[in-house]
Amino acid sequence: MTASSQKSARATTLDRAIEGTWLVCAAFVPILIMPDTWMTGFVQVPKVFLLRTCAILLVVLMGIRWANGPGGNGLTVGSGRSWLDLLRAALAAATGYLRTHPIMLAAVGVLAANLLSLLFSPMRTVSLGGVDPGWDGYSLASVASYLVIFVAVATNLRSVVQVRRLLWALTISSLILSAYGTGQYLGFDLFRTEWNPNDRIWLTFGNPTFGASYLLMTIPLTLALWQGWQKRFAPAVHVMLGMALVMPQIGVLAMTLSRGAMISMAFSLAVFVGLSFWLFGLKRAQRPATILAVGVGLVLATSFVPIPGVPRVGSALVERLSTIGASLTVAGGGLSDRYTVWGYSVTAFTSVPWADTDAFPEIPELTARPLRRLVGYGPDMFRYAISYAQSPVEEPVGPGRWQSAHNFLIHAGVELGLLGVVAYLSLVAAISLALYRLLREARAGGIPEPMAYVVIGLAAVLAGRGLEQMTGKAQISDLALSWILAGVVVALTGMRPQAATVTPAEAKVTSRKPAARRESQGRRSGGEGLISRQVVINGAIAMVVMGAIVVWSQTAVGTLRSSLLLGEAIRAGEAGQTDRTGALMERAIAVAPDDVAPRFLLSGALLNGAESELDPALKLSLLRTAYDTIGKVIERNPMEFRARARAAGISVEIMLLDPTFVPTAIRNREVNAALSPSLWKPLEFLGETLFQVGLLDTAQDVLDRAMAQGASNSNYRYYVLYLQARIAIERGDLAEATRIMQDYTNNMHAFRDKMTSRMT
Predict the structure, then answer these.
(1) I want to staple 572 with a disulfide (CB 3.0 to 4.6 A). Which of 71, 319, 404, 581 is the partner?
(2) 3-class secondary structure for 693-753?
(3) For residue range 340-359, what is the model confidence (pLDDT) as tens digits?
């Protein structure tokens, strides 16, 4: 076998490996889930592990493909040329490629916006790896994974057959999800030990809304794929088989009862039928319209079929859809929470509020305030930015309640600033323009009908996805699919028939001569020095592979192993194996030292052990170990709400045994309150600690602040009243104590009535 034929064989193998990797990502990231007894994060962690594994593998495969000859990106490493010439050629080819592919250029803009925002982030470690490393989020690590898969699809998807394989993979994956969701609806779940049927199913996504968001994209793609098979079946058979592919997905989407996704699906499918009519006329548009109309009708009809022990989807569906109008109201409607977080997001964007870092140097400083509207707070920093934009609330909700703006552009504005918003809008505009041009070409007959339906499906997905993300939250599965489909659009723009510039004979001659020349030049250059260029290339590839293994072990493997060990530790704890539980938790920390979950669980276990310990010295030792354990989380992320609250609680327990720890306990309570300035509950805890150490006046001032900050209007203020009554008694003011206790009694009655109402 000649060198050129060997290179061709290697290229073919690499091409297949690259395609296989993105197919695995597209098909298995959505459906991958572990039994909840196996690990913590059994929904998110496996998905993130597979996504990052595929992304790192694609980097290696595309690097090897590039180094071994012409690839989908048109870059070549040849012999007989200096490395500077090769670099210049690569940059020139890349620049030319971006100029002719606006979608790729917009994707580069998204990456640049994230990198710039990371540079200005007050916590770069969090923005780089995420609040919870190895879990779902909007960190640069996650965005980079999406972009790698996008580039792989955009530059290596070259044929109609590959497009069909991808769509079939998505369709089969969605049908598996539909079967799983139907099982959940009927009360069967293979991955949860305690699952009861309810009126909303969450599939393998952990949230009904996430599952609906994903199916919203796969339904038009399945319909588009199947339209390419019209000529292979009789009309009635084609419609029936199409319904068999689409109905399960529509039915399961209905079971999620996600109003936003259902409205978006209706819009998306209307776009599909409308574009079919525009391209092919009324007769051709009847086929997909019939599949959808009959399919939706059957789904609605069967949703009212009574099943013993299972709520009827139809009744819940009618109830949900009938409240769409009321949900749009600002006060009390289903979108009231959305309006609230949007308002907070606007405040965070316009006024750039932040903690007083002079008074609380424990909180990272937000530098370059004037630039924040341009670059944002940093990737994955939304939950911290929003904390300082919130107003006092009636009920005591945690500061981490808002992890997303529930609007993709608003979320991008807070985290990435105007540059991020412009980058994403440019991406959507470039995709829309590319699809419009493809549709125009299809209408003119320049694209075969099966592929024209694929373009229609992609346009319908873009329409539905755009509408749904105005109130939704993007998650790993639907984000990965969105970027994959963006890559498909790029590939389709280069897959259209082009006029031949050379004859087949000329192509054979030109393909043989460079190959022979490269081989002879390679032989000459191989003897000119001690080390040939190919040896250098192979060495560079080996270094890339080793680096990829290191990155993979740090960003994907560690969290997965840690989560599995924590699952084993929890099972050991339930079995009463205390020593083994602690050992497994320590191993989980060792394999993923930056992860929050193992240190959080270990500190909780130590705290529980201290509470049951009678020996004061041993109890104090356990508490100090727990405090040091949770302190490692705070070192990585000083604004981690959960860790700060845990540290404050542990420090109070230490304070009760060691009076020298009083200033530390008070300071921890103060910092905890500073991290959530809109909430009164942390002030309640601070007031309690001050009362415990005898600082009555300061405690009273803090409790008064809690009342002014929302506790006075809350049904949960009873403990604030109790503390105020205790302070009044300590001061000897029995009349004031009696008045407060009367308020306390009334509040307890209100609290009881509210809890009874919720239970009924």
Answers:
(1) 581
(2) CCCHHHHHHHHHHHHHCCHHHCCCCHHHHHHHHHHHHHHCCHHHHHHHHHHHHHHHHHHHH
(3) 889 889 999 999 999 999 99
* Residues whose CB is less than 8 angstroms from the CB of residue 552 and which lie 6 or more positions away in sequence, other chains included: 52, 53, 56
What count of other Cβ atoms lies within 10 Å of the Cβ of residue 216? 29
Is the confidence at residue 269, as pLDDT, over 70? yes
| Residue 727 backbone zone (phi > 0: left; psi -120 to 50: alpha; other: beta) | alpha
Grouping H, G, I as helix, E, B as strand and the rest as coil, residue 599 is: helix
Looking at the chain, the number of H-run helices and the number of E-run strands are 31, 0
307: phi then psi, degrees, rounded to nearest 5: -125, 125
Is 48 within 8 Å of 141 (Cβ atoms)? no
The residue behind tokens 């509207």 is 373
Q: Identify the pLDDT of residue 88.
A: 75
Query: Which of 304, 299, 276 shows the shortest CA–CA distance to 288?
Result: 276
pLDDT in tens, 193-241: 776 555 688 899 988 999 999 999 999 999 999 998 888 889 899 999 9
Question: What is the per-residue pLDDT for 526?
Answer: 43
pLDDT digits 0-9 by tens, 146-195: 999 999 999 999 999 999 999 999 999 999 999 999 888 888 888 887 76
Percentage of the chain beyond pLDDT 70 is 84
**Residue 552's closest CA among 202, 50, 32, 118?**
50
Opening angle at CA 482, ends 476 and 488, nearest 5: 140
HEC letters along 298-359 = HHHHHCCCCECCECCHHHHHHHHHHCHHHHCCCCCCCCHHHHHHHHHHHHHHHHCCCCCCCC
Residue located via tokens 């600002």: 330
User: Dihedral through CA 583, CA 588, CA 594, CA 599, nearest 10?
Assistant: -50
Closest CA to 638 of 317, 465, 384, 396: 384
Of 197, 201, 198, nearest to 187 by C-alpha is 197
Structure tokens at 606: 């130590």
The CA distances from residue 75 to 66, 133, 507, 756, in Å, are 7, 34, 19, 69
Look-up of token digits 């050629």: 89
> CB atoms < 10 A from the CB of 529, how many?
10
CA dihedral for 73, 74, 75, 77, sign (positive or negative): positive
Torsion angles phi and psi, residue 310, rounded to 5: -125, 130
- Give the closest residue to 543 by CA, choosing from 54, 64, 9: 64
CA atoms of 414 and 382, how far apart (whole Å): 6
Interatomic CA distance for residues 721 and 716, integer angstroms? 10
- Left (φ > 0), alpha (ψ -120 to 50) or beta: where does 497 sit? beta
Q: What is the mean pLDDT of the chain?
A: 86
Could you give the C-alpha distances from 257 to 199, 320, 516, in angstroms and in order?
Answer: 8, 7, 64
Rounded mean pLDDT, 536-553: 79
What's the chain's length in residues?
760
Which region among 26-30, 529-533, 578-582, 735-739 has the lowest average model confidence (pLDDT)? 529-533
**Neighbouring-strand partners of residue 310:** 307
d(CA 339, CA 405): 10
pLDDT at res. 350: 93
* pLDDT, tens only, 606-648: 999 999 889 999 999 999 999 999 999 999 999 999 999 999 9
Instruction: Please list, in sequence order, all residues whose beta carbon lies within 8 angstroms of the beta carbon of residue 414, skipping any fewer than 6 positions away.
Output: 345, 348, 349, 376, 377, 381, 382, 385, 386, 405
Q: What is the pLDDT of residue 360?
A: 95
Give the Cα separation of 465 and 431 in Å (integer): 13
